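[step 3/7] inverse_fold.run input=structure_tokens len=590
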């Protein structure tokens, strides 16, 4: 599973050495940067702008080409539409408010813009822009730790090239918008404010990050513990700005302790009170990701027969009880090859720099452990599910911690390289190559961005990757980002369905009907809006089937249950190679 990663490491090493030699004189002449300067180099702004243009264009083309899923992506735009039209914070996927799924409301802040431009493309633009702006915080943090504008700039480039971050913009399943992505820049800027000892602005940013998803509490709590243990942050490598709030150590420890306690309390409130309150008392849906823990415990209690016991997934408290009482059940999964693969995909694209600041990286360990124990069904090659490598969205809160640790790792690497090369130069006559290494972070800082570039070469979906240009790949640019005949034919469907209709449609055309009177999901998945049955709810006016979409299994009208069982109730309006449209008759057919 890992040859691509090790090949990326080798390529990054060669490239970093080559660039370091080419830039040796400039690197040695670099002056020390001031940590108090808020200025951001033009190169960083240009890189941010380039990222926004490229990924926004890709997102928009996926939408135009009818490749954007509704579930867990376009449904967030539906939340804004329904909220504006007095129907509450909900989607027609389910009858209740979305708060029964997650306490995730940050996208409501886009309402003023959405009123002016009510489009999914607005949300795509805002998410790409927010993710890209995280590079500004990375630059400030890295410059503060290294005292170098160039080091900060190169780590900002690393962030923009980091393929786990890019997968938050376009996931492996082409889901292009998730509110959790907004928490990444918010947490990065919060860390920057924490290091400046500006705790009021830090707290505001952390609260905003929590509104992106409750998962952020699992990194904010250990971040508070880190601040509590470090106190004044006695780090000799950290260039504290002169205008920073010189808070006494006791105050800093109190802030850290409050962060830890309040984050844990918030997580418990969400899991045990708020989400169940919006789900009529039932547990959060994602407790099912850990159902295997409860089943394994039941299997042991059943005598260790080895068979899987059919039981309902335990709630949060039941899962926690199994974790604390039966460590042998989950330790094997935590320390496994899939977990190692997950760790490598997070660390290789930053040149392993985060490992040089183990204290900061340890802030990510609780959430990393939770993710390693998750088991998400669907698309798995075996019953155990597939490892949650950072191709989806679950890892979003880990990204800021990895880059915070990497920024400190740059500074720690400087001390290591300085001692190593000083000994070498003392033992023998120096050469041009040796002089190139006198700047102790020169090679390391280049190794960071070349690692991100080389890792993305094999594992990214963007224009700097091989799959993007490979005509035999599932991610070939012509097949994903150039709308085809199917998208053209869909224009005729929009023309024959009035906006006040109730439409049941399959997933990839579903996003185009979210502004209609009702927009139902037509699938084999039982929905509460249809009395927990698959298919179309009784008040549906139109059924739209996308024949050639992923996972589509309907090609003929007779395969549609409603048309097959009650053919006189439905009129066939369209049936071509791409789409199938049924309309409910106003009066029974003779």
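[step 3/7] decode complete -> sequence:
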């Amino acid at each position: 599973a890992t040859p691509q990663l090790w090949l990326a490491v080798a390529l990054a090493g060669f490239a970093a050495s080559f660039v370091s030699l080419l830039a040796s004189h400039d690197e040695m002449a670099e002056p020390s940067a001031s940590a108090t300067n808020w200025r951001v180099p033009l190169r960083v702004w240009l890189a941010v702008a380039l990222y926004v243009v490229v990924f926004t264009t890709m997102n928009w083309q996926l939408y135009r080409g009818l490749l954007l899923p509704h579930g867990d992506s376009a449904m967030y735009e539906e939340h804004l539409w329904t909220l504006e039209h007095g129907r509450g914070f909900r989607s027609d996927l389910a009858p209740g408010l979305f708060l029964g799924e997650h306490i995730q409301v940050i996208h409501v802040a886009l309402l003023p813009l959405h009123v002016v431009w009510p489009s999914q493309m607005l949300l795509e633009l805002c998410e790409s822009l927010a993710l890209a702006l995280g590079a500004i915080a990375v630059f400030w943090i890295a410059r503060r730790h290294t005292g170098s504008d160039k080091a900060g700039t190169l780590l900002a480039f690393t962030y923009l090239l980091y393929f786990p971050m890019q997968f938050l913009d376009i996931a492996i399943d082409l889901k292009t918008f998730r509110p959790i992505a907004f928490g990444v820049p918010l947490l990065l800027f919060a860390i920057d404010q924490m290091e400046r000892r500006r705790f009021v602005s830090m707290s505001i940013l952390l609260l905003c990050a929590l509104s992106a998803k409750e998962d952020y509490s699992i990194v904010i709590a250990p971040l508070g513990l880190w601040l509590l243990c470090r106190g004044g942050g006695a780090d000799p490598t950290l260039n504290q700005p002169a205008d920073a709030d010189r808070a006494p150590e006791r105050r800093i420890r109190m802030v850290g302790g409050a962060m830890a306690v309040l984050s844990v309390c918030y997580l418990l409130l969400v899991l045990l009170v708020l989400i169940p309150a919006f789900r009529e008392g039932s547990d959060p849906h994602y407790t099912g990701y850990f159902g295997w823990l409860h089943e394994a415990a039941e299997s042991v209690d059943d005598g260790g027969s080895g068979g899987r016991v059919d039981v309902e997934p335990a709630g949060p408290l039941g899962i926690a009880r199994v974790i604390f009482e039966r460590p042998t059940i989950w330790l094997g999964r935590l320390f496994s090859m899939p977990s190692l693969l997950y760790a490598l995909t997070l660390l290789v694209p930053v040149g392993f720099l985060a490992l040089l600041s183990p204290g900061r990286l340890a802030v990510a360990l609780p959430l990393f452990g939770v993710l390693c124990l998750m088991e998400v069904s669907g698309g798995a090659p075996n019953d155990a599910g597939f490892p949650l490598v950072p191709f989806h969205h679950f890892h979003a809160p880990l990204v800021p911690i990895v880059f915070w640790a990497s920024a400190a790792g740059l500074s720690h690497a400087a001390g290591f390289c300085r001692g190593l090369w000083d000994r070498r130069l003392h033992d023998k006559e120096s050469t041009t190559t040796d002089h190139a290494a006198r700047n102790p972070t020169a090679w390391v800082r280049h190794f960071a961005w070349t690692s991100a570039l080389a890792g993305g070469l094999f594992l990214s979906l963007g224009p700097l990757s091989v799959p993007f240009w490979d005509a035999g790949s599932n991610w070939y640019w012509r097949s994903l980002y150039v709308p085809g005949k199917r998208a053209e034919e869909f224009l005729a469907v929009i023309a024959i369905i009035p906006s006040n209709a109730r439409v049941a449609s399959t997933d990839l055309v579903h996003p185009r009907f979210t502004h209609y009177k009702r927009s139902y999901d037509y699938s084999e998945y039982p929905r509460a809006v249809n009395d927990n049955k698959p298919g179309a709810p009784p008040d549906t006016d139109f059924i739209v089937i996308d024949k050639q979409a992923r996972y589509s299994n309907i090609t003929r009208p007779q395969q549609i249950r409603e048309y097959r069982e009650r053919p006189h109730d439905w009129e066939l309006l369209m049936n071509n190679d791409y789409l199938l449209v049924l309309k409910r008759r106003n009066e029974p057919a003779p």
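[step 4/7] annotate
DSSP finds 25 helices and five strands in the chain.
Residues 226 and 256 are 7 Å apart (CA to CA).
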